[in-house]
Amino acid sequence: IKFNISLIPSDSYCIMFKSWPCFQCFTDLPLLKNKVLDPIEEAIFQNPDVSFGGHSKPKNCTALQRIAIIIPFRNRETHLHYWLFYMHPFLQKQQGDYGIYVIEQHGESKFNRAKLMNVGYAEAVKDYDYNCFIFSDVDIIPLDLQNLYRCSKKPKHMAHSLDKFNFRLPYKNLFGGIVAFTKEHYLKVNGFSNTFWGWGGEDDELFQSIERASSNISRARVFKHKRDRGNERNLQNVHMIYKAKSRMNDDGLSSLKYTVISFTKHRLYKKITVDIGSPP
Ligand code: UDH
Question: Where do the Galactosyltransferase C-terminal domain residues begin and end (predicted)?
Fold first, then answer.
């Protein structure tokens, strides 16, 4: 797939600082060691400029990229609270014009992360004129403020240097965790596949035609967790990756079907709970 570079907006209106320091406080703050501490109240208190429902934009400049941050979600409240606590200040320091969308899978059937991301795209475009979509797991936070939450000339892998893999890429084709697509890119690839149920593969199948931020900037921390019930590894997903090209046009945004169960505006995010069905 070839992406058209001229379609990429730049952020020339908002001044981007060239030499941000590593966002040290991220490495100093307590993470999930102290489970008594719930950071959501603190996050609300510290982010008065975020509108109800989780949208924020810089006051003194116009950001040319309008960013929807989409989080696939089920039963990870604690991680979400930590994520909000870290990420709202991070995104505001980067002068982002952004909205946070938590897309929750309703029911008990196998988790389908990629389909939830497609739902996030489909719902976010109804809300605001977003032109950049960043899909983020709820348990990953970047460790360096220079890792810009912006779209780029190609779909961008933003967190390939994870602490849990010793800051190394575990395998070449990895494309997951945090990825950024312009609207044009996402439409061009027809979104993610809807047919990856259970853990593994769904994002890796788009690894061709991507770019990666330099590995020191894209260092990220993953909150520790056990494999979730309903998201067990699905070995069939590995075989599906090889058929990605033949499926791409028919399986994705163009074939997306879901039912919205509820929309809830929270103080720092918008949650959309959806029924996305179950595997055949
Ligand atoms: N998730 C939930 N609830 C679940 C399962 C998954 O909210 O029950 C979401 C959540 O945002 C999570 C994401 O899906 O962060 C990914 O699931 P995971 O945390 O189990 O994945 P893992 O940390 O792998 O094991 C992350 C990426 C590394 C390899 C990517 C290969 N494509």
Answer: 156-222
